[in-house]
Amino acid sequence: xxxxxxxxxxxxxGKWRAVAMTLREKRTKRLAYLFVLPALLFxxxxxxxxxxxxxxxxxxxxxxxxxxxxxxxxLTNYKEVVQNEYFRTALKNTAVWTILSVAGEYALGxxxxxxxxxxxxxxxxxxxxxxxxxxxxxxxxxxxWTWMLTPDYGIINLWLVKLGLLKExxxxxxxxxxxxxxxxxxxxxxxxPFYTISLLAGLQSVSRDIVEAAAIDGxxxxxxxxxIVLPQLKTVSLTIVFIHIIWTAINFDFIWVMTEGGPLYxxxxxxxxxxxxxxQDYNFGNASALASMMLxxxxxxxxxxxxxxxxxxxx
Amino acid sequence: xxxxxxLFGLAAVLVLSTALAACGGKNNEPAASPTGNAEPxxxxxxxxxxxxxxxxxxxxKTIQAxxxxxxxxxxxxxxxxxxxxxxxxHDKLVAAINAGDAPDLSWGLSEWFGEFNxxxxxxxxxxxxxxxxxxxxxxxxxxxxLTVEGKxxxxxxxxxxxxxxxxxxxxxxxxxxxxxxxxxxxxxxxPVIKEKTGKEAFGIAGAGVRSPxxxxxxxxxxxxxxxxxxxxxxxxxxxxxxxxxxxxxxxxFKFYQDLLAAKAIQADAKTWGWEEEDQNFVLAxxxxxxxxxxxxxxxSENPDGMKDVKVAAPVYxxxxxxxxxxxPLYVYKSENPDQAWEFASYLLGAEYQKAVNPGKxxxxxxxxxxxxxxxFMALASQGVVFPAVSLGGITKAMEDSLARAMxxxxxxxxxxxxxxxxxxxxxxxxxxxxGS
Amino acid sequence: MLISRSKQRFLTLLTYxxxxxxxxxxxxxxxxxxxxxxxxxxEIRTVNPTFWISAPTWKHxxxxxxxxxxxxxxxxxxxxSAVTTGASLIISIFAGYAxxxxxxxxxxxxxxxxxxxxxxxxxVLLLIPLYLVMKNLSLxxxxxxxxxxxxxxxxxxxxxxxxxxxxxxxxxxxxxxxxDGCSRVxxxxxxxxxxxLPSLVAxxxxxxxxxxxxFMFGFVFINDEEHRTLTPGISLFKGLYQTDWxxxxxxxxxxxxPVVIIFVFLQKFLVEGMxxxxxKG
Lengths: 315, 436, 281
Hints:
- The complex is a heterotrimer of chains A (315), B (436) and C (281).
- By secondary structure, chain A is mostly helical.
- Chain A contains 13 helices and 2 strands; from the N terminus they run αββαααααααααααα.
- Chain A starts with 15 loop residues before the first helix and ends with a helix.
- Chain B folds into 2 domains: 45-160 and 325-375, D-Maltodextrin-Binding Protein, domain 2 (3-Layer(aba) Sandwich); 163-324 and 385-429, Periplasmic binding protein-like II (D-Maltodextrin-Binding Protein, domain 2).
- In chain B, 45% of the residues lie in helices and 15% in strands.
- Chain B has helices at 2-28, 58-73, 86-98, 113-118, 126-131, 140-145, 168-173, 183-197, 210-221, 243-261, 274-282, 303-306, 337-348, 350-356, 373-377, 392-406, 412-429, and strands at 45-51, 77-83, 105-107, 147-148, 151-152, 154-161, 163-167, 200-203, 228-229, 235-236, 286-291, 309-312, 322-331, 383-384.
- In chain B, the strands form 4 sheets. In chain B, strands 1, 2, 3, 6, 13 and 14 form a 6-stranded mixed sheet that branches. A 4-stranded mixed sheet of chain B has the order 8-11-7-12. In chain B, strands 4-5 form a two-stranded antiparallel sheet.
- In chain B, strand 9 and strand 10 (235-236) form a beta hairpin.
- With 281 residues, chain C is mostly helical.
- Chain C folds into 2 domains: 5-44; 69-280, MetI-like (MetI-like fold, Orthogonal Bundle).
- Helix content of chain C is 77%, strand content 0%.
- Chain C has 13 helices and no strands.
- In chain C, helix 4 packs across helix 10 (197-213).
- Chains in contact: A-B, A-C, B-C.
- Chains A and C meet through helix 1, helix 3, helix 4, helix 5 and helix 7 of A and helix 1, helix 4, helix 5, helix 6 and helix 7 of C.
- Chain C: It holds the Pfam family BPD_transp_1.
- Chain C: The chain crosses the membrane at residues 12-35, 78-99, 111-134, 146-166, 187-209, 245-266.
- Chain C: This is Carbohydrate ABC transporter membrane protein 2 (CUT1 family).
- Chain C: Residues 74-266 form the ABC transmembrane type-1 domain.
């Protein structure tokens, strides 16, 4: 590295310093914008532009099957969506799906991360095994699980019956009260390894000295976990939970591959409903209205969370 | 450190070069061409053809060979055959049609016919057909089903006529010599079969694409239709105007409930899709099903389960009827309609149909003497089809109505009323409701 | 030590029990795929499914390798995923650096919010708008369409991961380099990159995996076999009236195994890389 001695504002003395700093700051600002430019370009072309289209379409009549009806629709699309018989079901299912999935994933992720953080033989092997579900494509995982869960020729039902846990094969994906829960179960299977890795990373950065010091002070395993380890995981946990709430809420593939939202809308979530409006009814007005609403829900949720946490931090 | 830098440089170049390559493609392309394949007239025309064939089967291989034969024998036409499964074909076609980027020809389901026609994506084939020497060899009721306002907008690719398939051994074990002819006979046989063999008598599809196809058949067997063309050329479901029809429609839902109550079908069948329905029948898990000729293809995988399967006419209540699936060959509006027709007429020709669809072709001059083909084709005259309207909302409503009848146990009359309303709502949304 | 010996032994046993439980849960469907892929057709769909294979066969693998365009799909996926990974990495290194060091500028902050926002758009909704964009750019049926789309999808998270990492690198390290006259780009590549190898690996693995597994856009943007990627290619075994499970599972195994092997070899980096970003998040 050759030192290039053209100008070094930091070394200039006296009254020139302030002017130089702002000049420098300006240059830095330009540089900062240059750095985010490529990412921003992608965002504008492939996210922002479609997003604006969606927002605009939500106030238009836009039905491919009925081109005669077009133009400004006001809030008609929103009204139609809210009045849909299954709107509330889908809203509730989305909440259930998101909360249960994220909670289950977090619990399993934490448990597996804690186990993998112990000094035992074969750790590398176990860690490799636990990553596998995350690597299997959703479509393939969904189809394989669907097959394994069928009542008549699926291995899971057969084993459950043989073990005496079930009296007769049960159609997990075909009954109103278990379809959504079953998809949650499979979703947890596929997504928890991401938590495992993140939390394991968090655990490994927990200082061993502090834990040992606490042990010498007489803190038991449980106390040490609750008061030393867990607080250290707070930031990681918040980040992964935050991002997974978003990802899970907008997830479409898993439910579509396994149940298509059925039976009788019992596993229908908002993204499935958006898909139906767009690709089955060709009603892009309604689809856009629902999507805008969903976006609105999520943004307001996070704004609420943000203010809540800022306020808490100030105290 | 240097190596790493080089790696990044390489990646950057890679990104750039692909982007540039794409730009190059753009420049070479005449702006008017939707498919990117149009070239000056004297040169060969390329037709994009999307088929849902299964390349691992003999049938799929025959199709590929036959298409290649056409390609080789026509210097001025190139066929670009792409295999795309029915699962995603619909979404791909909708996206492509919307972007003005449709292929020249594609396979498809009859359920999409009304929609694509509404999207104004389909080529009017009437003038070509009228000049075609083979027109009289296609079943007239099949062509009729693909004709809207006097214009034929699609061609029949193959037929999936439904018949009653039964495991003869299961019926024999229950002491039954002949398959049932009516709904009541079927319901009466069910307890006997269950008692003697431990297996259910019948199978249905309660969910998925197959379930509306079965529902429209049962409705037809009780002499009710989904939607009728009215004087103004638009459609309407008239059950609510006509108590007699409403009662008949309700009887159909009652039939579904009776099947469940009498344990004539497995409890799970209320949410079976076509895969479960077919698979369980092939495994001889139940005795009878109304299904299509493709089941014959399962013999290789499950020879034991399939060896005693026989074909009969579907059970009925008032009027013998079956569902006739007409899998259309869609020809889209493009710049090369003449070449597209040339290829389409080859796909409909005797030689291709004989080789590819021996037991399910739409030509009356090619009835197969051996195997299943004959038994299925004998039912062609009583086949019913979906009305030529946008069906997306309607088939979904039909599926929901079955769930209401079998999962929620709503009263059959209520379900019939609900479905009637849902059909008209859907017609109204797409601007196809009579009187609107 | 920290706990008594008997307690220690109990904990070890418990740990093994938990890990074995997890292994069964994680491996079960994968083993089922593996078993199915070497079963003859007659044993695949029966009333008594079992892991036991009485007549193992390589028939399905042969069919996949010789009877289908699997190798083309595989090659395409490797290419698209690799380019996507490279592109996302470069873009997100800069964007992540800006988010980490320059949040004081309002524009950068807004950019961060935009990145977060982009995560909230359901992919289903983008299907038709993006198809139109690609159509207008004449990119339908090209590798570029998928590379562009996948890069867009992966950049936000990669950016956040890189930001998390840069946050954990002390600023002093850069200052001293700056005094030595390094440009910002020089600082990033000469000072930060060498110490961030694990984070780079973790971020790349994430980007790669996303591109490798994506299904819907891969299907909608691509019309021919020469450009088709793996997941849509595999689903082609789901035939017209029946699914060729043996071949589908054989193809799945062959598409999942390489990634599993990559992950197994690089998993150390994965955890280390996440550690760097995880502390500050």
